[in-house]
Write a structure and sequence with these properties.
Length: 254
């Protein structure tokens, strides 16, 4: 198979939550494959932008608080990418938050905050991008799901609910948009060494129990997401619709 199928030259991608961790890794993977990258964050992601530019690609900042933005403001964010970079071809819904508390103590505000960022923003940004994609006859939406799109987890009912829902809307959008040349799929990362998992990795007993179950025997890293992400953003995945792909070191099959 030609490596050209995985090239993104001339394409423009929008990545949310791109200042660090998996989002920064996603932005750099797409830039390495040839895409210009818009970076949506509450504040400019200067470090990521500098790294994108060092790869010879354009970077554009989109300042938006996904926890407070209206659907109209999120549509304007997508349009700002078109205005600045000339088009939009790929949306990566990576931004997410997590709040930990026992289910009987999980507050209404924590529930609302998590669902707003992890689900509502994903829906509205996907809808806004899809309108442009349908008009141009092609586009890629990549949602970042989770192992908790399949499992219940502990201490994170809001996060679990949001990630189950992300898997659901991935399939829903795929059903309606595939005929328009738009691919909607998701990646479900396993246990990744990021800020979100820092409290777990600091718990020696919990970390050991997790590593004992991962066949690969280690935590994942942003680099482990690069191949699947570029695949889903590229022409190589043109006949893939509604998939939720685990990148988990084998966690789910254990």
């Amino acid at each position: 198979m030609s490596a050209d199928l995985f090239r993104l030259d001339g394409k423009v991608a929008l990545v949310t939550g791109s200042s660090r961790g998996l989002g920064q890794g996603a932005a750099l993977a797409l830039a390495e494959a040839g895409a210009d990258v818009a970076l949506l964050n509450r504040a400019p992601a200067h470090e990521t932008a500098d790294k994108v530019k060092a790869l010879g690609r354009r970077a554009h900042h989109v300042e938006q608080d996904l926890g407070a933005a209206t659907p109209e403001e999120l549509d304007e964010s997508v349009q700002s990418v078109v205005d600045a970079l000339g088009r939009i071809d790929v949306l990566v819904n990576n931004a997410g938050i997590i709040r930990r508390a026992p289910v009987l103590e999980h507050s209404a505000s924590d529930w609302r905050d998590v669902l707003t960022v992890n689900l509502d923003a994903v829906f509205h940004l996907s809808q806004a991008a899809a309108r442009r994609f349908v008009a141009q006859g092609e586009g890629k939406i990549i949602n970042i799901a989770s192992m908790l799109s399949f499992q219940g987890g502990i201490l994170v009912p809001g996060y679990t609910a949001s990630k189950h829902a992300v898997a659901g809307i991935t399939k829903s959008f795929a059903n309606e948009l595939a005929a328009h040349g738009v691919n909607v799929n998701a990646i479900a990362p396993g246990y990744m060494a990021t800020d979100n998992t820092a409290p777990i990795r600091a718990d020696e007993a919990r970390e050991k129990s997790i590593l004992d179950r991962i066949p690969a025997g280690r935590w994942g890293t942003p680099d482990d997401m690069r191949g699947p992400l570029v695949f889903l953003a590229s022409p190589a995945s043109d006949y893939l619709n509604g998939a939720v792909i685990p990148v988990d070191g084998g966690w789910l099959v254990r």
